[in-house]
Design a protein that fits this description.
The protein contains seven helices and 52 strands. It has about 1000 residues and is mainly beta. The strands form 14 sheets. Strands 1, 2, 4, 6, 11, 15 and 16 form a seven-stranded mixed beta sheet that branches. The longest helix has 7 residues.
Length: about 1000
């Protein structure tokens, strides 16, 4: 039979209309069909001009690089040693699998049958300065897939042997031989709509190579063979190895590259049947002037794969991304040859076949040709067909249309191809509207009617269908023809693991400009309280194991390139002075930091962060997870390779914690300036003894992986996860497994503000014991005692500094114990830190393109800080009534960062983190008075009528004193004038009167 459901006589079994008229009589179509492949001219002819495929021989063969696992006896042992499985194990397990209908109708439209003089001078396949040139026949999408996950290319097979001695590679163009160039199937870089869309951008990051990179020898003893360099072509051939432009796309399955995603299209060109001034042959009963109107054409093409040299390809190095398809080298490329046939179908002077469109009522013919189906449900592909009036892309006919399987694919029934009402995908006569929508259901033994078996995860299917129109009576006006095949590639997708609680996934991370950073969460590392970043992941497929890997992707390569290069594996430039969060040393060797005086003096002296992984899969310290081969070679690993030994498997709900205890004593992320590091002669407001500084915040990223590759023995996950179009830090290195979305965490190192001082402990006021004080809260040895006199005014200034340059702080006087009477409390004011007081911090900015950008975090030396330092003054003039008393006044600084609230520190509040409390003790001098060389126990004798004198001397400390009368004095007692001084003397005089003889009088004085 010519078609699966057409009778050999031209009728369609069980339907109302014939496909083609019989092979004889009026309108006969199949009569005198010829087969054309290399026949005629200088080409080899077979079977009396019927054609054959021998000019393209070898055909229908598959080349696969294998290895030799048997010790051969001499002399063969030496010959095969280079092919031993130990030295060159197979790293290309699956060959590419091309899928194409074995027989394709190519419609001859009214445009096609015009005489050349009336048609466009272009061949409709050439750009010729316009991107809107439409091909005369729809191109054929050649689907292929590779279960190794490799990149693939399709290329037509050149002729062999050469045409003549002057044509070393079978034609003037080795890829488009003259003798076959008119009618062989070649690649087309346009789309299904037949429009040519060439690639115009250069290859590089973010762009794609759509030219198959294999080189061939154009001359020399090895001409026509594949080569890597000129020497492969033989001696004396310095420019023989060339890379021809084939016009075929390189592509992965479900390629994310816009240039490559369409896959490979082949030109099905019958324009060569026209000659100058002559129409395409429409008399299908005869051959006119040697130009047949009916012909079968056989086409041969190769599908090759490009194995990864290593599953984890090196950053931005094309040589490690894919390998040229050589069959005798370590790359081990495979080549599969495919043969299919085409024939022209004249659709009539007023008819074209239906077209597949993207949606009901749509005119867009660039339909989706790649689908991913969840293994937990049926795989259903929507199909939409419209039949347009001749010469129109919008006006719809009322013809009857249908859809069926392309030749070479299993017949589709109403159970697998159906309309919304469950009926077959075909109009009945009298009910046609020129449009049809159906559903294609993918069936396979792995599908039980509800879901797919786990073993189907990662499998790929290709289904090809064609649309047709129907006529009860075929004529030169309308003849039923099939559309170009629509070949759809379908992948059965498993489930990706994902992070779940208690993993912190909040959208709370903002860059320096206040822009929310997607896919990143801030987590605090609060001084004195260990960070425990707990992550957990699951996969909805309960049979699959899951692992978590968290790493610091942003590392300065200059820090470790000498002492610890392994830390830099698969990492780009993460930013200047950005140390690895999981490494205990800040740099290796340490001199990278120590020799930079500005860095140490400005940013502080630190050790490494030294964060730890705790929990499941903690032994994995590098992202590459696939074991080397038996010889230790990392470049010959296949999809069948096991995981490296330190990877934990067999865990369904893994949990991994990142533990980090930021500590100023250890200097692992925060440091404090000691007497050896602070400024000995600071300007006002610039004292920095006791100042704490944080090292730059760290960004770490994690991905959860399942074990789909090793479990199902095929590349199940995303293709080319490490391609050079992806920025280095975004590459997940899933390598055939399913991977979760990458999530990042910014570890924000936080500490409360502290009071800073100078060498003398004056600003802020500290006792002489300040160098040994870690936290002044409640530590009386840190309190400075200030002595002052009554009415003596004294001002003291407190300076506080926060370790984070982005924080703002305020100094507050504590209500308990409060302030004494008359004390004036100044306002807490910010001290801006710029070039004169440099600080350091991470530069953290993103662009609208994030995360698709080359992001990094650089240590900024001289970062502006508006209010991480503040000062406050206390002024007091003690009144007399407080003489001899003391008062304690306490202060504390608070920042504005609430990130540590409820994370452990008791002084962290929703308004910010209160730092240490610093108190100062005011002691007001009281008066100390004494009588000097004066006795108040002696009895002084006095005589009536005589004046008696008695001197008293008084002294006061630290105040001036005088002597005053105390109590009532009897008549006759007086005291001379007394001054006020630190020491004064008073003369008491007593002149007794008559009548007082024998009496005793007591006279009292006081010091004031």
């Amino acid at each position: 039979t010519v078609w699966p459901d057409w009778t050999s006589g031209g009728g369609r079994s069980g339907t109302e209309c014939p496909a083609y008229t019989p092979s004889s009589g009026p309108g006969a179509y199949w009569n005198t069909f010829s087969m054309w492949q290399g026949a005629g001219g200088d080409r080899e002819a077979c079977n009396n001009n019927a054609g054959c495929i021998s000019p393209a021989s070898p055909a229908l063969e598959t080349y696969v690089k294998l290895c030799w696992d048997v010790v051969a006896d001499p002399p063969y042992g030496d010959a095969f040693s280079s092919l031993s499985c130990n030295q060159r194990p197979v790293n290309n397990y699956f060959s590419p699998q091309p899928q194409v209908p074995i027989l394709v109708e190519v419609t001859a439209t009214p445009e096609t049958v015009r005489p050349l003089s009336q048609a466009s001078s272009l061949d409709f396949w050439t750009l010729a300065g316009s991107s809107d040139i439409v091909a005369p026949h729809p191109p054929l999408l050649v689907q292929s897939f590779d279960l190794d996950g490799h990149k693939m290319s399709v290329y037509p097979v050149p002729d062999d042997p050469p045409v003549n001695a002057g044509d070393p590679l079978v034609g003037d163009d080795p890829i488009q031989p003259v003798s076959l160039g008119d009618y062989r199937a070649t690649c087309f870089l346009g789309g299904r709509d037949g429009k040519f869309r060439p690639k115009v951008t250069a290859d590089g990051l973010g762009t794609y190579n759509n030219i198959w990179p294999t080189k061939r020898c154009k001359l020399g003893s090895k001409m026509g063979q594949w080569c890597v360099d000129h020497a492969d072509c033989g001696t004396d051939c310095p420019s023989c190895c060339t890379r021809p432009t084939l016009g075929c796309r390189d592509h992965y399955d479900f390629d994310r590259a816009p240039d490559n995603a369409a896959g490979t299209f082949l030109k099905l060109n019958f324009q060569w049947l026209r000659t100058s001034g002559q129409a395409f042959g429409t008399n299908f009963n005869s051959l006119a002037s040697g130009v047949p109107g009916k012909v079968f054409m056989q086409h041969i093409y190769n599908t090759v794969d490009h194995p990864f040299n290593a599953l984890d390809n090196a950053q931005n190095d094309d040589s490690f991304v894919v390998a040229n398809p050589t069959w005798d080298g370590s790359a081990g490329g495979a080549s599969v040859q495919t043969v299919f046939a085409t024939f022209p179908c004249f659709s009539g002077r007023n008819n074209t076949p239906p077209s597949f469109v993207t949606a009901p009522g749509s005119t867009n013919t660039n339909v989706q040709t790649a689908y991913s189906c969840d293994y937990r449900s049926p795989c259903l592909i929507p199909l939409h067909v419209r039949d347009f009036e001749i010469g129109s892309t919008t006006a719809q006919t009322k013809q009857h249309v249908g859809v069926e399987a392309a030749i070479g694919f299993s017949k589709l029934t109403a159970a697998t191809l159906y309309r919304a009402d469950g009926s077959a995908c075909e109009d009945k006569f009298g009910l046609g509207v020129g449009a049809l929508s159906c559903t294609l259901k993918v069936e396979d033994p792995d599908f039980d009617g509800v879901k797919w078996a786990d073993s189907a995860i990662g499998r790929i299917f290709v289904r090809c269908v064609v649309a047709f129109d129907k006529f009860q009576e075929a004529s030169d006006e309308r003849i039923a023809c099939r559309s170009a095949p629509l070949c759809v590639k379908i992948k059965i997708e498993g489930t990706r693991p994902y992070f779940v609680a208690p993993t912190p996934l909040e959208a709370n991370s903002f860059d320096d400009n206040g822009v929310l950073v997607p896919g990143r969460t801030d987590v605090p590392a609060c001084e004195g309280f260990p960070l425990e970043l707990t992550t957990r992941a699951i996969d909805d497929n309960s049979n699959e194991d899951v692992r978590i890997f968290i790493e610091d992707k942003f590392v300065d390569p200059t820090l470790y390139s000498t002492g610890a290069p392994g830390l830099l594996r698969f990492k780009g430039d993460g930013g200047q002075y950005n140390a690895d969060f999981f490494y205990p040393l800040l740099s290796s060797p340490a001199s990278v930091f120590e020799t930079n005086a500005e860095l140490v003096d400005t940013c502080g002296r630190f050790s490494g962060y030294g964060a730890l992984r705790v929990g499941d899969n903690i032994q994995q310290t590098a992202v590459d997870a696939v074991a080397p081969d038996t010889s230790g070679n990392l470049n010959t690993r296949s999809v069948m390779a096991p995981y490296i030994a330190n990877i934990s498997v067999g865990v369904k709900r893994p949990q991994q914690r990142v533990v980090f205890n930021v500590d100023a004593v250890s200097r692992n992320g925060i440091t404090s300036r000691t007497t050896a590091e602070c400024n000995p002669n600071p300007l006002p407001g610039q004292a920095n003894c006791r100042e704490k500084l944080v090292n730059m915040d760290q960004v770490i990223c994690g991905v959860a992986y399942d074990d789909a590759r090793s479990r199902y023995r095929r590349w199940a996950g995303a293709r080319n996860p490490n391609g050079n179009d992806i920025n280095v830090w975004r590459r997940d290195h899933s390598n055939g497994d399913y991977a979760s979305d990458m999530h990042c965490w910014r570890v924000r190192i936080a500490a409360p503000p502290v009071f800073v001082t100078d060498f003398q402990g004056e600003s802020s006021p500290f006792s002489d014991a300040w160098p040994g004080v870690v936290d002044s809260s409640g530590d009386e040895s840190a309190y400075k005692h200030i002595q002052l006199f009554v009415n003596e005014e004294r001002t003291v200034t407190f300076l506080a500094q926060d370790a984070n340059p982005d924080d703002s702080i305020k100094i507050l006087v504590l209500e308990e114990p409060g302030v004494p009477i008359g004390m004036k409390v100044g306002r807490s004011t910010c001290i801006r830190r710029g070039d004169d007081q440099k600080m350091c911090g991470a530069q953290d900015t993103i662009t609208p393109a994030y995360p698709n950008e080359d992001w990094q975090s650089t240590q900024v030396i001289g970062k502006l800080s508006e209010c991480s330092r503040a000062q406050l003054s206390l002024t007091w003039k003690p009144p007399v009534e407080v003489a001899g008393t003391s008062f304690k006044v306490c202060l504390a600084a608070r920042d504005n960062n609430a990130i540590c609230y409820s994370r452990g520190p008791p002084k962290a509040t929703p308004e910010g983190w209160f730092g240490e409390e610093l108190c100062v003790v005011y002691e007001v001098y009281g008066p100390v008075m004494a009588w000097i060389n004066t006795s108040f126990t002696d009895t002084v004798k006095a005589y009536v009528g005589c004046t008696n004198s008695y001197h008293v001397t008084a002294e006061g400390r630290p105040y001036n004193v005088t002597v005053v009368q105390a109590g009532d004095w009897p008549a006759g007692v007086s005291m001379g004038a007394v001054g006020t001084d630190a020491r004064v003397q008073a003369a008491l005089q007593f002149r007794p009167t008559r009548g007082s003889e024998g009496s005793t009088t007591t006279v009292c004085v006081a010091v004031s």
